[in-house]
Amino acid sequence: MKSFASDNWSGVCPEIMETLQKVNNEGHIPAYGELDDPVTLSAITRFKEHFGQQSEIFFVYNGTAANVLGVQHLMRPYEAIISAHTAHMNEDECGAPEKISGSKIYTIETEDGKIKPNDVKPFLRSIGFQHHSQPKVISISQVTETGTVYSREEISVLAGFAHSNNMYLHVDGARIANAAVALGTSFKEMITNTGVDVLSFGGTKNGLMFGEVVVFLKPELAKDFEYSRKQNMQLHSKMRFIAAQFERYLTDGLWKKNASTANQMAHLLAAELQKIPQVELTHDVTANGVFVKLPEEIIPKLQKHYYFHVWNPDISEVRLMCSWDTTRKDIDGFIDALMMELLNNEQM
Question: Residue 298 belongs to a domain with what CATH number?
Answer without folding.
Answer: 3.90.1150.10
